[in-house]
Design goal:
3 helices; 2 domains; mainly beta; about 425 residues; single chain; about 5% helix; 12-stranded mixed sheet; 8-stranded antiparallel sheet
């Protein structure tokens, strides 16, 4: 059975259609230049494609979507081009196991299996079960090297990776689809598939702009008020640590950022909102903290970026993945990384052992306590988060690229209102 291969500049996930079909020659040119393009595999008499592959060498990425006869996506595979140009690493995959022909695509009751792999051999396989069994079953995958990696095919030599799933035993014969007209200019629609990118910062500046109106999805309208200043932090070493002070760090803080040595303002972003409360009265107004900030400069941030831990490789990030500091005690801190060990010891003495001389406790704030190394004057200020887990650290830069602020959201990112 011949398999038709068509090429396009993009694939519209909602319409399940190629966007701006292109010839094989143009696709090969884009391949050589590292530009994104898609390959679509079809058989005669079937409306849905067998599989669609997105190639974007400039993003170190090759992705695959497999479709069933009803047009539902049943499997995705995320591959990455790392240091070896001849091999692709199978970074991430998800398989959906639909329990009936009428189950909707990605139905919340659909069982699925996720495999998350890293080049150093680490990995996790998660089975999310539904029905009577329910829950998740997590194991460490035992895979051969050829199951983690695949040879990078040349353009035009790609196999049909979903052949077995579609019951195609013999290597299929491929026919290149013709293109009747050239693709025109235009921006790729937002409904089209794109290479994955890490989590994005959102409108952080709005959280520190008094009068801005936002919503957290639960409260329909919240108004940003003047940031609340809670003192300063001394950084004589010029190395800012942002970390969870409550877990084993294995040698140091999670994130270290260079800034000019100095003393910097600590503040909180706050919002005011009203709501109905049957216990306190018909209309209650309160002010909540949404973020904590170390203000390095008075120039407004022109851009925000997610700080990364040492060793983080952006080529391995899946879509919306975060990097940041970990906490299992709902606590983070800003500190001088040059005096990390003595400051951390003082934190433990003050908070855990209750030594009144080790730390200054802060009341009525998301900031909890301050410790100071007497030898260097370096400080650590701990703050509360709203839970355990990983919290991204957002770094604001001025147009010249200098750091002007470092922000940690203690709640989720609110959405601006028009």
């Amino acid at each position: 059975m011949p398999i038709e291969v068509g090429y396009a500049r993009a694939w519209d996930l909602e319409a399940r259609a190629a966007w701006q079909p292109i010839s094989a020659g143009e696709a090969q040119e884009r391949d050589a230049a590292g530009l994104p393009y898609v390959a679509v595999y079809r058989t005669q008499g079937r409306e849905a494609p067998l599989e669609v592959r997105l190639v974007s060498w400039q993003d170190h990425y090759v992705g695959l979507w497999e479709y069933d006869a009803r047009g539902r996506r049943t499997y995705c595979l995320d591959m990455r081009l790392l240091d070896d140009p001849a091999r692709l690493f199978r970074r991430y995959s998800v398989g959906w196991h639909y329990t009936g022909p009428d189950m909707a695509e990605f139905d919340k009751e659909c069982p699925k299996t996720t495999v998350d792999l890293f080049p150093d051999g680490r990995g996790q396989r998660t089975e999310q079960r539904r029905g009577e069994l329910g829950g998740s079953f997590v194991t460490t995958p035992t895979l051969r090297d050829d199951e983690r990696w695949m040879d990078r095919p040349a353009f035009g030599d790609w196999p049909l990776l979903s052949a077995r799933a579609h019951g195609l035993g013999e290597p299929p014969a491929f026919e290149v689809a013709g293109v009747t007209e050239a693709a025109g200019p235009g921006d790729v629609p937002t409904t089209c598939w794109r290479p994955p990118r890490p989590a994005q910062p959102g409108p952080i500046n709005e959280l520190f702009r008094p009068g801005a109106r936002v919503t957290d999805g639960y409260h329909p309208e919240m108004t940003v008020v003047e940031p609340r200043r809670l003192g300063t932090l001394r950084l004589p070493s010029g190395l800012l640590a942002v970390s969870g002070p409550d877990i084993d760090h294995g040698g140091g803080p999670h994130i270290v950022l260079p800034v000019p040595p100095g003393e910097y303002v600590l503040d909180e972003a706050q919002v005011r909102h009203s709501y109905h409360c049957e216990w306190e009265g018909p209309q209650v107004t309160r002010t909540d903290t949404t973020a904590v900030r170390l203000l390095v400069g008075e120039t407004p941030a022109a851009s925000w970026e997610m700080a990364r831990r040492q060793g983080d490789d952006l080529r391995l990030f899946i879509d919306d993945q975060i990097s940041g500091f970990d906490t299992d005690g709902a606590t983070g801190c800003f500190a001088d990384a040059g005096a990390w060990e003595p400051l951390l010891a003082l934190f433990e003495q003050g908070l855990i052992q209750g030594d009144p001389d080790a730390a200054e406790h802060i009341s009525d704030s998301m900031y909890l306590l301050r410790t100071r190394d007497q030898d260097s004057g370096a400080e650590l200020v701990a703050f509360a988060t709203t839970g355990d887990g990983t919290y991204p650290v957002w770094v604001g830069r001025c147009p010249a690229g200098d750091v002007v602020g470092v922000v940690v959201l203690v709640e989720g990112m609110p959405t601006p209102l028009p």
